[in-house]
Each structure stands twice: as structure tokens, then as C-alpha cells.
Amino acid sequence: MIQWSIEAARKSECFEHIVVSTDCEDIAQIAEEAGASVPFRRPAELADDHASTMAVVTHAIQWANNQFTDLNDTQQPVCCLYATAPFVQAEDIRQGMSLLADNEFVIPVTTFAHPIQRAVKVGPNGCLEMFDPVLYTARTQDLEEAWHDCGQFYWGTSHAWNLGRSPYEVKSCPLPIPRWRVQDIDTEEDWVAAEILYASLNALKTT
Asked: pTM of the entire structure?
């Protein structure tokens, strides 16, 4: 999958450097064959299941500051592009970069398919419970639309990344993406959904 992300980055023509951060030799080889550079190996403390995106990007920026003079500019745009984003589009990356001129971060977002205010959970007794029972009789069309992070990429200025603050604590701009082009991949079920979406999109291209 990382090849798709690297290909989208290359097609966007936004980057002087496409750098992959990893501690895995196999991934490093695949990334280099796809046209990215892997000039360092990510340290172990940033390569476990609890490492944050912010910490990983900050580490990469600090490394780059010692190599590339262009990243010493605090307003230099830096994009974190996830390896598990097979449906990311080069045009979205370009549009995100253009929006960064007036913001500290740009985050691709999409709408929830159903109002989150009517979400339910399984209680301790195994029965369904509403998160907010007060809204049981509310009409779905009357509830406020909610959005979520697409999990594809983040544009931010090098200064904003280095602050280490949540993008939601500073001036962040949303980049709307249609739901049919968004599929995060964390579980086997996500993978199956991605395969179905990939096949559907390919079928549309051939009709």
C-alpha cells in the first residue's frame, strides 16, 4: 500500500523531498523502489503501537533541518502522508497545500453517514444504550452534521508541527473529501471494505 501513497505524492508535484520514516528494512526497500528516499531509520521509541503521528513527524523534521536548509523556514509546508491511505488523490494533496497559506494545519475530513448524536453502545448488561438518550425522539434531519478525520494526510507548517500541539488546538482548515473515497485501514474488516471500494472505483473507470 505504501507504493500508492508514494505515487500520489509524486503525482501531486508538491514535494522537493519525499521521505519515508520506518524502522523496517523491507518497507524501506519497497519505498525506495517506489521513488521515495529512506535516509534514516526511525528510532525504536517511535516505532511501537503507542508512538504518535506528531512525534514521528517532528523527528523527521528535526532530521531534515540538519540536512535541508529549506526546512529551517518555520512556515515551510510539511505533509504527513499515511502509508495506509490507498485512496488518497494527488489533487487532494495539491488542494491541501494551497489551503495551508492561511492556516497552520489542513486536515482532510468527511461526513459521518449517520448522525453521531444518535449513536448507541452495548452496555455492561449486554443491552443497547444510547450515548445521549435525550435525543431519542430527535429527527435525524434536525441534528447537526458531524465530520471525522479521513486518516489520509495532514499538511502543516514546520512551526506548527514542532509546537507538538493538537491540530484542533490551532488554526486548522478542513478539506472535505466525499465518503466514497475514504477508507481507513486498521482491521481485517477495513481491508475487505477497501478491496470492495477499489474494485468499484476501477469498474467506474472502465465504464
From this structure: 0.89
